[in-house]
Design brief:
There is one protein chain. The protein is α/β, with parallel strands linked by helices and 337 residues long. The strands form 4 sheets. A 5-stranded parallel beta sheet has the order 1-2-5-6-9. A two-stranded antiparallel sheet has the order 3-4. A two-stranded antiparallel sheet has the order 7-8. The longest helix is centred in the middle third of the chain and has 18 residues. It contains 11 helices and 11 strands. The chain starts with 29 loop residues before the first helix and ends in a 5-residue tail after the last strand. The chain has 2 domains: 101 residues, no CATH class; 219 residues, Anaerobic Ribonucleotide-triphosphate Reductase Large Chain, CATH 3.20.70.20. The protein is elongated.
Length: 337
């Protein structure tokens, strides 16, 4: 189906606060109701809940069901779908993600939990430079979403910066910057911000990245993973050295012993639970592209949609993109207040 034949709502559905009188109560423990009140229920200006859990579940169910109106569903059909979804939630059979519970049927309408944000090797380029992405991260966290980053495009620590005649501070330093911003935003947001940071195993700063969470008081708002390649794992098996690649010049700038680096990863995972591993080549081989969705997203022109996300490969500066690196998703974000 051509993308331009699809119909999507231009604005998020705003629930009208009406609740059927015959809805069954939610099967919740006292503790569950306390958690819902602290994190998910609508609140007044004093931070006090102004809806019950059952009202929240109906707000979500009614908002989700409303999407079927775009495919010809009648009012009666939407009501039935909402009741079915409500029953799934109040019985604990299925629960949507946190942003859906918080935002469905409300003006923000942001229901996504995870956003991959590109980080280019520039302080700012108006789109995906380090500080451009920092702003985007804060807005995503404000809306209740979490963020993931690939820091592999950033030049290694000590590399020359021609524009200032200085030297680069490296990916880990900017990851700490993002961590500090997350700490500030989470103090006033709906819930704590959460991040994932990935660095390729052949980045020259890989040792510093692997050990950046040895001190468990540092980088506390990030989980980290090393993007390992098939070539690296073969080197581990054979006990060989492998090349470190400067992401700026694409030149070999050193070598590491694969077994030693892998042992560092395993030791860190044993010691602190960090880092994990991300099997880069397997990820690339298993990608599925929804062409209709991306045709629609790229064709849509709307000033509310300003956050650009690269579709694939936030961590691999050497991979050939099937969309020339420009598969784009755009998400509607609130104006900063």
């Amino acid at each position: 189906m051509p993308a331009d034949t699809l119909s999507f709502p231009q604005e998020p559905f705003i629930w009208d606060d009406s609740v059927p009188a015959d809805l069954p109560p939610a099967d919740l423990t006292d503790n569950a109701r306390i958690v819902l009140g602290k994190r998910y229920l609508k609140k007044n200006e004093d931070g006090e809940p102004i809806e019950e859990p059952e009202v929240m579940f109906w707000r979500v169910a009614r908002s989700i069901a409303e999407a079927d109106r775009n495919y010809g569903a009648s009012d009666a059909a939407i009501e039935e779908i909402a009741r079915q979804f409500y029953d799934l939630m109040v019985t604990g059979t299925f629960e949507p993600n946190s942003p859906t519970l918080m935002n469905a049927g409300r003006p923000l309408g942001q229901l996504s939990a995870c956003f991959v944000l590109p980080v280019e090797d520039a302080l700012s380029n108006g789109k995906s430079g380090i500080y451009d992405t920092l702003k985007a991260m804060a807005l995503v966290h404000q809306s209740g979403g979490g963020t993931g980053f690939g820091f592999s495009r950033l030049r290694p620590e000590g590399s020359p910066v021609r524009s200032t005649m200085g030297v680069a501070s490296g990916p880990v330093s900017f990851m700490k910057l993002y961590d500090a911003s997350t700490e500030v935003v989470k103090q006033g947001g709906t819930r704590r911000g959460a991040n994932m940071g990935i660095l390729r195993v052949d980045h020259p700063d890989i040792r510093k990245f692997i050990t950046c969470k040895d001190d468990t008081s540092q980088v506390t708002n990030f989980n980290i993973s090393v993007a390992v390649t098939d070539r690296f794992m073969e080197s581990v098996r054979e006990g060989r050295d492998y090349d470190l690649i400067d992401p700026k010049t694409k030149e070999v700038v050193g070598q590491e012993n694969a077994t030693e680096i892998f042992d560092m990863i395993v030791h860190g995972a044993w010691k602190t639970g960090e880092p994990g591993v991300f099997f880069n080549d397997f990820y690339q081989d298993s990608q599925v592209v929804n062409e209709v969705a991306f045709e629609w997203l790229e064709a849509r022109q709307d000033d509310r949609f300003f956050l650009f996300l690269h579709y694939m490969d936030p961590h691999d500066p050497y991979f050939e993109h099937p969309y020339n690196g420009e598969g784009v998703a755009r998400v509607s974000m609130p104006d900063p207040e």
